[in-house]
């Protein structure tokens, strides 16, 4: 952690300790896994009773501003609700800008998914402070979410559907439709690989790919990073779908999935043929 951010976090913790509405909190994220470095930020989760939850949430910008020289941005996640809230902020500390987050968990609704997710892997050793012992008792219950593994058949169906869909967009030179569908292809490829290689108990897809998918297969995902130029996009799709086909066959062999080979073969052949034709015959 940067020394300035460490100091600001210390001020935020002192503020929360003085606020009787906050029962205490614990570290989530890289700190809870012992993986933080000088570029990391803090992901503190603070436990709040239902009767105080919305009032404390309303004061969140003021609390963060008090810990900083200046609060530049205060941004709430779209999933925030009556049970869990994640507030991200950009603060100024001297001449530097830092991100400082504030998670609020409603102690009366621990079974909600986001609440369980932010207890996952956290124990008493991660406690920041515990005003009454309720935080320790709360974490002792072992709330957690299960690791959700993508459906490889869904990933394959999604992929080949959008490959066929791309033909008309290349013919129309519809750049933004191509970019949209390229993003769908990329994430279907991610899902396919994670259906086989996701063993990580934390993090979003990018962390799961980085830590779980073999490096040579990560290279297949790099194929989607093409310049927004029609010939380069066409070449990227052709290379990527060949790599996807190879990866899909490997996943099917590993999992014993009898996915019809005629589907990708016909669609790939048709894609190549149609893009080489001037007219639709």
Description of the molecule:
- By secondary structure, the chain is of the alpha+beta class.
- It has 2 domains: 3-140, 2-Layer Sandwich (Beta Polymerase, domain 2), CATH 3.30.460; 152-276, Up-down Bundle (Four Helix Bundle (Hemerythrin (Met), subunit A)).
- It has helices spanning 3-18, 30-33, 50-58, 60-67, 113-117, 134-140, 152-172, 175-197, 205-212, 215-222, 230-255, 262-276; strands spanning 22-28, 43-48, 70-76, 84-93, 96-99, 102-106, 127-130.
- Strand 4 and strand 5 form a beta hairpin.
- Helix 1 (3-18) crosses helix 4.
- It is elongated, with a radius of gyration of 24 Å.
- The mean pLDDT is 94.
| SS summary, helix count | 12
CATH topology of the largest domain: Beta Polymerase, domain 2
Note the main sheet.
Answer: 7 strands, mixed
How widely separated are the two ends?
A: 62 Å
What proportion strand?
Answer: 15-25%
Q: Can you identify the CATH superfamily of the largest domain?
A: Beta Polymerase, domain 2
Q: Give the total of beta strands.
A: 7
């Amino acid at each position: 952690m940067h020394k300035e951010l460490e100091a600001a976090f210390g001020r935020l913790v002192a503020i929360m300790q003085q606020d009787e509405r906050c029962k205490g909190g614990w570290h989530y994220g890289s700190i809870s896994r012992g993986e933080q470095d000088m570029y990391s930020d803090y992901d503190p989760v603070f436990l709040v009773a239902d009767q105080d939850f919305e009032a404390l949430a309303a004061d969140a910008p003021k609390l963060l501003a008090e810990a900083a020289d200046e609060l530049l941005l205060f941004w709430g996640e779209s999933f925030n609700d009556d049970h869990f809230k994640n507030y991200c902020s950009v603060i100024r500390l001297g001449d530097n800008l830092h991100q400082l987050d504030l998670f609020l968990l409603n102690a009366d609704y621990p079974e909600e998914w986001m609440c369980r997710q932010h207890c996952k892997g956290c124990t008493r050793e991660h406690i920041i402070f515990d005003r009454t012992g309720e935080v320790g008792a709360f974490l002792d219950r072992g709330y957690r979410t299960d690791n959700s593994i993508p459906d490889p058949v869904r990933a394959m169906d999604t992929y080949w559907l959008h490959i066929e869909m791309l033909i008309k967009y290349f013919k129309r030179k519809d750049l933004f439709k191509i970019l949209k569908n390229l993003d769908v292809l990329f994430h279907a490829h991610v899902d396919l690989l994670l259906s086989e290689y996701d063993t990580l108990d934390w993090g979003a897809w990018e962390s799961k790919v980085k830590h779980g998918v073999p490096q040579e297969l990560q290279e297949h995902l790099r194929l989607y990073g093409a310049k927004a130029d029609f010939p380069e996009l066409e070449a990227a799709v052709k290379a990527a779908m060949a790599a996807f086909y190879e990866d899909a066959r490997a996943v099917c062999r590993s999992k014993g999935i009898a996915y019809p080979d005629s589907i990708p073969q016909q669609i790939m052949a048709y894609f190549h043929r149609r893009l080489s034709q001037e007219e639709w015959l």
